[in-house]
Design brief:
138 residues, alpha/beta, 2,3-Dihydroxybiphenyl 1,2-Dioxygenase, domain 1, Signal recognition particle alu RNA binding heterodimer, srp9/1, four-stranded mixed β-sheet, 3 helices, 8 strands, elongated
C-alpha cells in the first residue's frame, strides 16, 4: 500500500506545482488541463486552461492536484517537510511564508531544532521540521 496526497486549488494549481518544482526540488511528471479532456468543446476558455489533473514527485512522496471551483485553502491537514539541517528549514520557511500566512513562526521546540506551521500563497498548509536527534542516536 502507498499513500499519496491530492490537493485541490482554486485556479492556481499550475502555478503552485511549478513553484514546488522549481523551489522545492520536485518534478512534475504529469499535467493535463480540462481543455485536453474529452469535454473540451463545451468549456469556456478559462475552464479549458484549468488543471484537470497534475502529478508532482516531491522527495519520496507523490503530490497530485487539480483546479476545483470554489476550492478553499487547507484547514486541518498539513504537508510536512522534514529536512536535514536548520539552514534548510529556514530557507524553506522564508520561501513558503512569502505571501502566505504563518500559524507558528519558525522556532526551536522541545522536539525540534526548527519547527514552523504555515499556509503558502497557494493555500497549501505546511509543517517544516528539523528534528532533534533521539537520545543515543547521532
Amino acid at each position: 500500500m502507498k499513500l499519496d496526497v491530492y490537493l485541490n486549488f482554486a485556479g492556481n494549481c499550475q502555478q503552485a506545482f511549478r513553484f514546488y518544482e522549481q523551489r522545492l526540488g520536485g518534478k512534475i511528471t504529469m499535467s493535463m488541463t480540462h481543455g485536453q479532456g474529452p469535454n473540451a468543446a463545451t468549456l469556456s476558455a478559462e475552464q479549458k486552461s484549468a488543471i484537470l489533473h497534475a502529478r508532482l514527485e516531491l522527495g519520496n512522496t507523490v503530490v497530485m492536484g487539480a483546479d476545483i471551483p470554489n476550492s478553499e485553502p487547507m484547514r486541518s491537514a498539513y504537508l510536512t517537510l522534514s529536512v536535514d539541517s536548520e539552514q534548510e528549514a529556514e530557507r524553506l520557511y522564508a520561501l513558503l511564508a512569502d505571501g502566505g500566512q504563518i500559524f507558528m513562526e519558525m522556532e526551536k521546540t522541545f522536539f525540534a531544532n526548527r519547527f514552523a506551521m504555515l499556509r503558502d500563497r497557494f493555500g497549501t498548509s505546511w509543517m517544516l521540521l528539523h528534528e532533534v536527534p533521539a537520545p543515543g542516536h547521532v
